[in-house]
Design brief:
The complex is a heterodimer of chains A (682) and B (281). Chain A has 682 residues and is α/β, with parallel strands linked by helices. Helices cover 28% and strands 24% of the residues of chain A. Chain A has 5 domains: 131 residues, Rossmann fold, CATH 3.40.50; 106 residues, FAD/NAD(P)-binding domain; 69 residues, no CATH class; 165 residues, FAD/NAD(P)-binding domain, CATH 3.50.50; 70 residues, Alpha-Beta Plaits, CATH 3.30.70. Chain A is built from 18 helices and 34 strands. In chain A, helix 5 packs antiparallel against helix 18 and helix 6 packs parallel to helix 15. Chain B is an alpha/beta fold and 281 residues long. Chain B folds into 2 domains: 130 residues, no CATH class; 131 residues, no CATH class. In chain B, strands 1, 2, 3, 4, 5 and 6 form a 6-stranded mixed beta sheet that branches. In chain B, helix 3 links the parallel strand 4 and strand 5. The chains are: A alpha/beta (682), B alpha/beta (281). At the A-B interface, helix 16 and helix 18 of A face loops of B.
Amino acid sequence: MSKKIGVFVCHCGTNISATVDVEKVAEEAKKNNPGVSYTTTYKYMCSDPGQKLLRDKIKEEGLDGVVVAACSPKMHEHTFRNASKKAGMNPYHVEISNLREQCSWVHPDKPTGTEKSVDLVRMMTEKTRKDKSLNPIKVPVTKRALVIGGGIAGIQAALDIADAGHEVIMVEREASIGGHMAQLSETFPTLDCSQCIMTPKMVELAQNENITLYTWSEIEAVDGYLGNFDVKIRKKARSVDLDLCTGCSSCWQVCPSKKIKSEFDMGLGKRTAIYIPFPQAIPSKPVLDREHCLLFKDARKKNIPPNDSKVCRKCLDICPIAPVKAIDYTQEDEIITEKIGAIVVATGYKELDDISMYGEYGGGKYKDVITGLQFERLASASGPSEGEIQRPSDGKVPEIIVFIQCVGSRDPAKGCSYCSKTCCMYTAKHTMLYKHKVHHGHAYVFYIDIRCPGKGYEEFSLRAIEEEGATYLRGRVSRVYKKGDKLVVLGADTLTGSVVEIEADMVVLASAMKAQDDAEKFAQKLSIQYDKDKFFSEIHPKLKPVESSSAGIFLAGTCQGPKDIPETVAQAGAAASKVLALLSADELEREPVVAKVDRLPAPIFSTCIGCFYCQRVCPYGAIESEDIKARDGSTIKTVARVNEGLCQGCGLCAATCRSKSVELAGFNDEQVYAEINSVEFN
Amino acid sequence: MIEELRKKAEELLKNGTVKVVFGYGEGSVPERTRPVFITKPEDVNKLTWNKYCVYNLTTYLKRQETRKLGKPALILKGCDARTIIVLLKECQIKREDVYIIGVTCDGVGDPLAEKCKACDVHTPLIYDDLVGEKRENKEVPFEERYAELDEYEKLEEKDKWEFWQKQFEKCIKCYACSNICPLCFCDRCIVEKNQPQWIDPSAHPRGNLSWNVTRAYHLAGRCINCEECQRVCPVDIPLNLLNKKLAKEAEKSFDYRPGYNIDDELAMSTYKEDDDEDFFK
């Protein structure tokens, strides 16, 4: 039975009607086309009355196919399909003829625009005739989230999801959660102690029954799709059994390797080979650094299993756990697989720590030229100097200190072109922390601009200058060199047009926030996009700020771009709410516009010949191979199959297939052929 | 060399390595050979080797009739052996399912076939056994390899179009070109798809154009230029000219030549992020 098709031509205000004679388009649509039983035009089809018109006419005229000649399907295909669904029609019998972006906006002349519009509408009418009812694909949802990264972003997202009653798996590659926030001394603009606000959250996370925490673990592979990810997690050998260990501290107290640079203290403090990164670490249980441990060093040298080495077993000997000790030198990496419904990526940033590229500032040359994060450790009560500001070279309290801003940031020639957003604020904070601890000291800041757009931020930075007496100099530093035990900072003050020379005791570089070193590789593992600076990309900078390019994977915190703590926490909450929306359904509905490889009766089974060109071109890894078996179990044919859960309906496979064995629902061969034919023969 | 071939075939059939040997046999006239399928060791004397062995025997790998005979050994020239590499890349055969008796070759045909004029695979690039004296495969410069196209490329666009229209007018849609082609291996060709009928099956100029252009497109970046399509065409359409032109474009754009290296990624289905894509600027 042939269809009764309705054609609705939209004026789009004057967007379409100024260059297209919409009445004529509607009239022509009916001419010589017995299938078209109703046509009309309307000022704004997408408006409420416009949609009502569509719904009413579907019912009144008994339409079973609709062409809306309006704007791009990207804009309102969804709107009109929904409207027709409400009128009781299968929404996939609605086609959009794009008269705006592809016609009225590009053709200034009305006769041409009208003629083309008539063609475009006829093409879609012919396609509509061949439309088939499609039903949404239902995908079951695993109600468990994965949070990658245990910094403040990950912790916040995990807590929000867990508090809503869903299981969360958190994977952190370091020995403890906490991330960069745990390293900070005090936070702007309120100067509250970072540890004091961070550690309760860490404890809350550890104690939350819905959260399973894997520290010292990394993501090995992510397979599957939205609602049904299979995630392989590598639990790196810790050499300590977390179930047995009580964190009694005996082992790290006896460890003889005491001079290893502490990563947590940014190299300013020392740690042992078996260690916890910082006193408030969670889990508060040690990890054995096999690279620096004497026993493992010896075993590597002699090429023997570590357990056979007798060089040093002090940690094992002292471990009070009995009968089985909590320390195990033979432990190996373990790979576990978890089923996951949605993923939050919160892998954070890395401070530009290779300051030797800024040799002009003495970076890498002088011990007393340090980074912002190093200064945080110096100022922190749990830091290597227990909160006293001391020069790394001789422990002297610096009386004059120079801060240089934008080191690495806003420097496309050497560093990154972007602004790291947090440095203006943390430098202002640093000058205050310094002043609070060294009352007679003086802080100088070289800046390009002071950027403090945030609640209380402007006031905070003014306070640094006006109340705490920091001297802000607008200009860049040309050179830092050593003179006796002083560092001479040569710079320009562009506001007075003079050259400034400061004999400082210490220099702090406000170094940039960069993407993690392995961000690119990691993004490829997850099939998410990243930008030129290797920060992960959101789909839409304004309207979809936490959605990654892969469905079901969300972004939180600085892995997406430089941010401060309030912004990070807000984004983590947003990511968590997206995850919760996904996990709140038992089944997810997916657009049925997916590809399918044909299956036919014996003896052909499928016209697919199994060349797997489709598999090679598929950007989503949605094509699998399937063996068609005979009754005796022997393989008759190996052919391609589309995983509907992964398919995004891009149609590359259908275009690539030489034998036309793949078809994309909603864009099948008959539909496309009908469209093309209607132009050629009319 | 013929004796060596026969001995090899006999040995492979006797020890059960293969069930059948695809080779060349004497034709009805001395200037011709024909494909033979030897299944019994006592029949190996039917095998021959001479300059008339122009055919590419890999085409029998796609035929049901010859597939039924069991694991084959194929007597392959360097050019024909390139097909094997493409078939392996396109998952049509498994390496362990074919035995390759490579033959070194100085060119076939009388007069010398076009494909032999710029040959750089006198010794096959893939084989299990080699018959004949091993020869060094010298590189042939790009221009020389595509010299056949020089005349054609001088034509104006309009003349090219006219040239092909005239050529395709002759086509009688016998599909010999696709039947002989070892790389036209689909169970159902696009021309056989009739819902919708993308390609008009009648010998009408419009259908002829779509058929011949589609056939050439489907071989772009895959064709190893064995010239079999052109040889079998009953109305003498210079099909290999079209194939060769596309091969040249594929090589220019992607620096890719099919059938040379099993580790190469297929030109027509590989996406590279660092591709400068200057061919469509």
